[in-house]
Specification:
Chain lengths: ~160, ~375
């Protein structure tokens, strides 16, 4: 049952991710990124991580990407061909992709990918489980991240205000 | 097989009740505004001219869509054809799928089978709704941009700025509700509102969170982009805003989205603050009044009363929003932004902190 949904969506996800990189029109690229992020959220649901999925949609697909689009539309750069990268960059990226594909195939052949019959315990990936690990085991990283974000916001306000006055 | 049929029936009911209420709203908008303005209102679609209302209810419901769907579907020169066609759907779909998570009744028992009257029983129902609401902005942004029209672009940009700003206040109002009930599950929130406070007052969310209710209602009205918060459309300044270059069925989709958003906001307000499907003093077995008076009712009657109660409350809040739309003058764009960032956001933050203090103090 899950496979019927999984494989078409996985194929669509790869196509959308390629569109982000390859499409000449920046607005279409950004839209494809929205689709990519949304489909990633669907895969989080497959992995029983419902809260992470919802947050992925709210924060990335719903808020950050709207601002991205906003900026792209205001600058209105229009469709343009990015200048071609040199053969070195292409070789490096292609080589890395081949290594990754070979590794994945090797792991899959060795039976190290895919957990058949593994069922997460009840409540796994729910709000309570996530909150418990955030506020007990990972309290320090969690608080440090929030301080980091606060610093970024204060920095942005200071930079913007200096230009105004 | 039976499970599948029940799931399909529930989804169908959720969608059809939403669409039905939306269609009725179109009529209330026509005739209600006329009533407020002391006009006759839509009266050209009469088949039987003798009846009061000219059967306007049915006729307007039929005439409006027929008129819109038979109009020319015009795409302006220089517009992005794909995105121009995609935008109305991106606006409409996120709004309609919200109804999947909203419970319209308690558990219905038929024989030995127990049916939870909610299309999708989600543990994270409220997060799901926030996620879908946050996606609904793409329709108007893309509609505005793809039209290749300055008015449309202005409308789209205003719309996205407004919706992102008010989502903050809306989210914080919902956070306070989550703190009060300690769950994100909408059905659980509805059940919790069935208890009685001091043995008399139904413990509806509005009793605990009156400020949260006002903030959510106002932020929701901004999301539905209608007067007094119609800056994205701004008929008197930017023609029709983000759907200036839309006609025919695509424009109908945008119009329908606005009305469906009114229903979403009403359903959300009803579920979070007015007990959802709860009827005061109605228990599983019938009415139990505070004085000790009881009235036993069969299970099916109780279930029907609950679903009816949900629909009546939703219709009430829809009508309230239409009344506001035809009563208040519109805001200026900067006034709406100031209201969102300088009034509603601080108020919502204070509400969250106060709720947190009370919850911690109460629970020890």
């Amino acid at each position: 049952m899950a496979a019927v949904v999984f494989f078409p969506l996985a194929a669509l996800l790869v196509i959308l991710a390629l569109t982000v990189v390859l499409h000449p029109d920046p607005v279409k690229s950004a839209l494809a990124l929205v689709g990519t992020l949304f489909l990633l959220a669907v895969f989080f649901v497959f992995l029983s991580a419902e809260v992470v999925a919802a947050l992925q949609v709210i924060v990335y697909a719903g808020a950050i990407m709207v601002l991205f689009l906003f900026v792209i539309m205001l600058l209105n750069p229009g469709a343009e061909r990015s200048e071609r990268r040199g053969p070195v960059a292409g070789t490096v990226v292609g080589g890395l992709a081949l290594v990754l594909a070979w590794q994945t195939g090797w792991l899959a052949a060795g039976g190290k990918i895919g957990a058949e019959g593994l069922r997460p315990e009840r409540g796994y990936g729910g709000v309570f489980a996530l909150a418990r690990s955030l506020f007990t085991d990972f309290l320090l990283p969690f608080e440090l991240t929030s301080v980091l974000l606060l610093v970024a916001i204060v920095g942005a306000v200071v930079l913007a205000k200096r230009r105004l006055s | 097989m039976a499970e599948l049929a029940i799931a399909a029936a529930k989804s169908l009911f959720a969608v059809i009740s939403a669409l039905g209420v939306t269609a009725v709203l179109l009529w209330i908008e026509r005739k209600g505004s006329a009533l407020i303005h002391d006009r006759i209102g839509a009266n050209r679609a009469a088949i039987v001219g003798l009846l009061p209302f000219n059967l306007g209810f049915v006729n307007t419901l039929l005439a409006d869509p027929i008129k819109l769907f038979t109009k020319e579907d015009f795409v302006p020169e220089g517009a992005d054809r794909t995105l121009h066609a995609l935008a109305p759907f991106l606006a409409l779909v996120p709004v309609l799928v919200v109804f999947a998570a909203i419970p319209f009744g308690d558990v219905l028992r038929i024989g030995t089978r127990e049916i939870n009257l909610q299309a999708a029983s989600l543990d994270i129902g409220l997060l799901y709704i926030l996620a879908m609401v946050s996606l609904s902005v793409y329709g108007i942004v893309l509609g505005g941009w793809a039209s290749n029209n300055r008015w449309a672009l202005l409308g789209g940009i205003r719309g996205s700025a407004l919706m992102i700003s008010y989502e903050l206040a809306m989210g914080l109002a919902i956070v306070a509700v989550v703190m009060t009930y300690g769950t994100l599950d909408l059905q659980a929130i509805c059940r919790a509102q069935g208890e009685l406070l001091f043995g008399v007052i139904p413990s509806w969310g509005v009793v605990y969170q009156p400020l949260g209710f006002l903030i959510l209602l106002i932020a929701g009205m901004v999301e539905s982009k209608r007067v007094p918060f119609d800056q994205p459309e701004g008929e008197s300044e930017i023609v029709a805003g983000y759907f200036t270059e839309y006609s025919g069925s695509k424009q109908a989709a945008f119009m329908f989205t606005d009305f469906a958003e009114i229903v979403v906001v009403s359903a959300l307000v009803t579920t979070l603050f007015f007990g959802g499907w709860q009827v005061p003093y109605l228990h599983v077995s019938g009415f139990v009044l505070p004085g000790g008076l009881t009235l036993a009712l069969p299970h099916l009657v109780v279930a029907a009363l609950q679903v009816a109660s949900y629909l009546v409350k939703v219709l009430f809040f829809c009508s309230l929003q239409i009344l506001v739309r035809w009563t208040l003058p519109r805001y200026r764009y900067d006034q709406v932004m100031a209201l969102g960032w300088k009034r509603l956001l601080p108020l919502a933050l204070i509400n969250v902190v106060a709720t947190a203090l009370v919850v911690v103090g109460w629970g020890g």
